[in-house]
C-alpha cells in the first residue's frame, strides 16, 4: 500500500498537514473512536503526516473487538448444536473464544456460514425450514438497522426458525465512559461518520459540553480524516468545545429517521459488557420484549459459560487507548493475524491488525502513554 | 465502520415485500436493501453498509470519493468479496459494505 502523500491527492494532504502544523501550538491527544478510521489512518500514513504534537489515540470502535467473551462462547456453543445453521459476518469467525473459534467449530462439523448481510441469514432461514438459523448480531449503530430489519422481517413472515444472538454496542455512552475514566488523556474525538449517518449527532452536544471536549464528525476517506483532524485541532487550540460536522455530505443532525424508528421498535437499551473494558451502563441494545421470541439466548439453553481470557493479551488497554498495539509484548511474536491472541488482531477494524498489516512494529517514542 | 464506497442506484424492485435496489459500485453491481432510503430513486448515490443503503450522497461527492479510492488502490480491495480463507487472514480483508 502506498501512502496518501505519494498520490495526486498528496498535494491536498500536504496542504492540510501544513495547516495542522501551522495551528498546533502544544500537544493534543485526539481519539478516533472508529476502527475503520484507525485503518484509514494507518494504511494511508496519515499518522506520519501529522506534527509530533498531535497524537492519535485509537478508540474502542471495533464491534468485533468489543464483543464480550461470554457472547463469543455462547456463539460457539450454539453453532456446535445439531440442527443449527450459524450465520455471521466473516470477521467473527477467527475471534478467539475461551477455547476455540467459529472456524474450529466449523471444521468440527458445525454448520457455520459467512454472510455479507443479515438479510442473507433470513434467506437461509426461508430455504431451510427444518433447521434453526441463528445470526450473530453484533455492531455499532451503523450495523444495527440492518440487523433490526432482519428480525423484523423474520417476525413479519412468521419465520419461527430464525433467531439472533444480539450484542450491539452504542457509541455515545462509550465516549461518556472514556471521558469519565480516571487517568483519561483524550482531549477530543473524531466521531464515526457512519454511526452518525444513522443516528445523526443530536446526542453529542450535551457530551461535548459536559466534558469540555470537541467532537468532530469525520468520514473515512483519507482526506476526510485529515480535514477532521484539522478542525479538531482548531477547536482545541481555541478552547471551542463543540460538535462540528466534517462529513456533511453524508451526515445530518437528525440522521436516518426510518432506521431510528425501526431500531426503537426492535431494540431496547441495556447495560452491556465491552470485551477488555467492562460493563458500560446503557451502552448496548438487546431485542425488545416484542421481539424476545427471536432472541437466540432465550431459544437455546447453552448452559453455564466459563470464560477464560488470554493472560498475555492487552487488548483492553489497546481499546481504551492506554497503550499502542506495538507496546504489547506479544505483538508480532506470539500474536499475529494467523495466531491471534485477541480480537483486536483478528478484526478488519482491530487496532492490532492495523498495526500489523501496515507495518507499525516499532513503538514511537511520542506514542508512549500511560 | 469501514471505508465507504458509494454506489449508484441502477434499478429498484421489491423482494419479500421489501424495497430493494441494484447499486453499481465503480463497475461492480450488488443488491442492496432500500428500506431506509424510502425516497431514493434510480440515479441517486448512496452509502451502503452490510447490504443496506443508509445515507444518500450527492453525485459530485460520490464521484470524488470513487476517484480517490481508485487512485489509492482501495476500490478493488473494498469491493472484492473475501473468501473464508481471506477471513482467516485479515490481511487484505474486504469490508462488509457490500451485499452479494
Ligand atoms: S497484539 Fe495480540 S496479544 Fe497484544 S493486545 Fe493485540 S491482540 Fe492482544
In a nutshell, what does this entry contain?
The complex is a heterodimer of chains A (370) and B (100). With 370 residues, chain A is α/β, with parallel strands linked by helices. Chain A is built from 16 helices and eleven strands.
Describe this structure in words.
The complex is a heterodimer of chains A (370) and B (100). By secondary structure, chain A is α/β, with parallel strands linked by helices. Chain A is 37% helix and 19% strand. In chain A, strand 3, helix 6 and strand 4 form a beta-alpha-beta unit. The longest helix of chain A has 16 residues. Chain A starts with 9 loop residues before the first helix and ends in a 13-residue tail after the last helix. Chain B is of the alpha+beta class and 100 residues long. Chain B is built from 3 helices and 5 strands, in the order βββββααα. Chain B has a 5-stranded antiparallel sheet with strand order 3-2-1-4-5. In chain B, strand 1 and strand 2 form a beta hairpin. The longest helix of chain B is centred in the middle third of the chain and has 14 residues. The C terminus of chain B is likely disordered. The site of iron/sulfur cluster has 15 residues of chain A, from helix 15.
Order of adjacent strands in the largest pleated sheet of chain B: 3-2-1-4-5
Number of extended strands of chain A: 11
Elements of chain B, N to C (H/E): EEEEEHHH
Q: How would a textbook summarize the main sheet of chain B? A: 5 strands, antiparallel
pLDDT < 50 runs, ≥5 residues of chain B: 82-100
Radius of gyration of chain B: 13 Å
Shape of chain A: globular
Helix segment count of chain A?
16
Name the ligand types. iron/sulfur cluster
Instruction: Categorize the overall geometry of chain B.
Output: globular
Strand order of the largest sheet of chain A: 4-3-5-6-11-10
Terminus-to-terminus distance of chain B: 19 Å
Structure classification of chain A: alpha/beta
Strand content of chain A: 15-25%
In which range does the helix fraction of chain A lie?
Answer: 25-40%
Amino acid at each position: 500500500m502506498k501512502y496518501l502523500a505519494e498520490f495526486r491527492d498528496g498535494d491536498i494532504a500536504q496542504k492540510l498537514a501544513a495547516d495542522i502544523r501551522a495551528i498546533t501550538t502544544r500537544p493534543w491527544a485526539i481519539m478516533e473512536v472508529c476502527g475503520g478510521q484507525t485503518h484509514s489512518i494507518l494504511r494511508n500514513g496519515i499518522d506520519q503526516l501529522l506534527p509530533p504534537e498531535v497524537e492519535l489515540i485509537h478508540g474502542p470502535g471495533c464491534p468485533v473487538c468489543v464483543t464480550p467473551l461470554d457472547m463469543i462462547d455462547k456463539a460457539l456453543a450454539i453453532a456446535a448444536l445439531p440442527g443449527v445453521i450459524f450465520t455471521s459476518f466473516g470477521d467473527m469467525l477467527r475471534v478467539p473464544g475461551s477455547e476455540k473459534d467459529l472456524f474450529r467449530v466449523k471444521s468440527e462439523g458445525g454448520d457455520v456460514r459467512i454472510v455479507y448481510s443479515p438479510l442473507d441469514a433470513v434467506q437461509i432461514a426461508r430455504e431451510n425450514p427444518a433447521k434453526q438459523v441463528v445470526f450473530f448480531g453484533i455492531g455499532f449503530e451503523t450495523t444495527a438497522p440492518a440487523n433490526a430489519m432482519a428480525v423484523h422481517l423474520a417476525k413479519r413472515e412468521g419465520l419461527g426458525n430464525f433467531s439472533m444472538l444480539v450484542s450491539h454496542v452504542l457509541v455515545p455512552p462509550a465516549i461518556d465512559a472514556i471521558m469519565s475514566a480516571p487517568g483519561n488523556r483524550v482531549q477530543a474525538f473524531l466521531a464515526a461518520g457512519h454511526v452518525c449517518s444513522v443516528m445523526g449527532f443530536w446526542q453529542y452536544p450535551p457530551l461535548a459540553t459536559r466534558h469540555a471536549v470537541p467532537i468532530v464528525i469525520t468520514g473515512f476517506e483519507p482526506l476526510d480524516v485529515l480535514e477532521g483532524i484539522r478542525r479538531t485541532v482548531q477547536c482545541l487550540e481555541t478552547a471551542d468545545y463543540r460538535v462540528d460536522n466534517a462529513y456533511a455530505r453524508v451526515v445530518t443532525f437528525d440522521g436516518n429517521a426510518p432506521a431510528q424508528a425501526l431500531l426503537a421498535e426492535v431494540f431496547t437499551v441495556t447495560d452491556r459488557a465491552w470485551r477488555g473494558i467492562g460493563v458500560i451502563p446503557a451502552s448496548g441494545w438487546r431485542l425488545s420484549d416484542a421481539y424476545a421470541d427471536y432472541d437466540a439466548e432465550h431459544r437455546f439453553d447453552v448452559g453455564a459459560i466459563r470464560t477464560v481470557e488470554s493472560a498475555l493479551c492487552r487488548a483492553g488497554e489497546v481499546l481504551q487507548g492506554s497503550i499502542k498495539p506495538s507496546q504489547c509484548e506479544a505483538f508480532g511474536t506470539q500474536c499475529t493475524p494467523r495466531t491471534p491472541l485477541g480480537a483486536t488482531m483478528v478484526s478488519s477494524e482491530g487496532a492490532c491488525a492495523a498495526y500489523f498489516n501496515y507495518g507499525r512494529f516499532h513503538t514511537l517514542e511520542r506514542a508512549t502513554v500511560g | 465502520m469501514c471505508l465507504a464506497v458509494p454506489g449508484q442506484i441502477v434499478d429498484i424492485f421489491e423482494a419479500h415485500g421489501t424495497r430493494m435496489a441494484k447499486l453499481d459500485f465503480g463497475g461492480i453491481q450488488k443488491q442492496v436493501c432500500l428500506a431506509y432510503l424510502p425516497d431514493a430513486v434510480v440515479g441517486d448515490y448512496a452509502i451502503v453498509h452490510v447490504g443496506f443503503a443508509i445515507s444518500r450522497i450527492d453525485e459530485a461527492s460520490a464521484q470524488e470519493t470513487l476517484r480517490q479510492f481508485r487512485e489509492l488502490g482501495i476500490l478493488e480491495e473494498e469491493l472484492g468479496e473475501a473468501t473464508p480463507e481471506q477471513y482467516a487472514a485479515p490481511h487484505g480483508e474486504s469490508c462488509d459494505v457490500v451485499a452479494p
